[in-house]
Amino acid sequence: MEKKSLWETWTPKMKQSMTGFCEEYKQFMSQCKTERECVDEMIAMAQAAGYKNLFDCVKTGEKLTAGSKVYANNRNKMLVLVQVGKKDLSEGLNILGAHIDSPRLDLKPNPLYEDSGFAMLKTHYYGGIKKFQWVTMPLALHGVVAKKDGTVVKVAIGEEAGDPVFGISDILPHLAKDQRSKNINEAFTGEDLNITFGSTPAEAGSSEGEDKDLFKKNVLNILNEKYGITEEDFQSAEIEVVPAGAARDLGIDRSMVYAYGHDDRICAYTSVRAQLDLAGEVPEKTYVTLLVDKEEIGSVGATGMQSKFFENCMAEILGLTGGYDELKMRRMLSASKMLSSDVSAGFDPNYANVHEKNNAPYFHYGPVLHKYTGSGGKSGSNDATAEYIAELRKNFDENDVRYQMAELGKVDQGGGGTIAFILAQYAMDVIDLGIPLHNMHAPWEVAAKTDIYEAYRAYRVFLQNL
Q: Under the phi-then-psi rule, with left for phi > 0, alpha for psi from -120 to 50, and beta for the rest, what region is 449?
């Protein structure tokens, strides 16, 4: 079954719109490298589109009617956007869901130590990474430090032109005989991912004991002067180690975007833009965009999709639109339709052997519908129904949205999962629709600009027409 690429079907006007949209996307990706930064920026975007804080409405008892727009922030790591539609909520919601956490390194609770004239930081990797990819590259520190007095200090070092960056050293090839003899998992272990943080000693004191750990003491003096934090404050900090630098165009033709965290902020941004760009209309069915944390480690915890936060928010909205009713809540959720917006593994000619070409997603052919994900025999997968897929195909075709049907690599090669199965537990129709990537889970991932913009169009059409 032969399909044409977006380059062949798009008008010059569409290509121009794509270019402008992707410039805004690159700016977002350069500025938002943690869950908290994403939530902060997306709340600002929502407020600019007329959205109000749901919990402020709950406090005042403000009634919500068709067209009302609210957002709910869960611990600055999870965000729910809702625009109330004309139809009764029991008729269901149109839901877009993406995650805003990405593979990275986190600082340990007691990260700072001194060794042989260096101040060093211990890390604990988060999510599925190839450890060797994080070695010998410039890294930045992003996050927050919560102090005992209740203040929260934001930290971002390594992104501005004059900032220092950080790094993890590797052994030179001349002395790497033992390293080469190991398999890749043994050659690079989690405990080896220690960051070089500084190498200047503080001035030695005049009394006994004040000349110890001078390299560690010097960096603590710098941190205290700049941020007012102490070594103990690391214990209540969330500092993420991410690649330093801005999102860039890739290719001499500038056709792709090279960025950290495409998985899955690429789907989060396009989903949010799809809903916010429709803020001026009153929808038929209620629009919802879910942005969740912890997907990369199983969607667990208070800010993951398996928490009850989304359900609690919809209960509050029912209460403000006519009164909470348990039966109505259950009917609303089971009647809903969802796109689990998560990325896919685009066909890569350098690694063609891991794909089955007839069922692989390709760059420039639009977002990817995955009937199922999982691994092996579809283990851990949501498996969308044929009827739901047919409904989506009809909707996209009628609105001239290009899409692909694909799988995540060869059957026995590996696999992966998304948040789809969690929402499907409400008995709603759910399917994955996301953007194909190269280098997924690497520090720098690659996406095609055409697919980014077409995914945005697909999400808009889904919200408006399902």
A: alpha
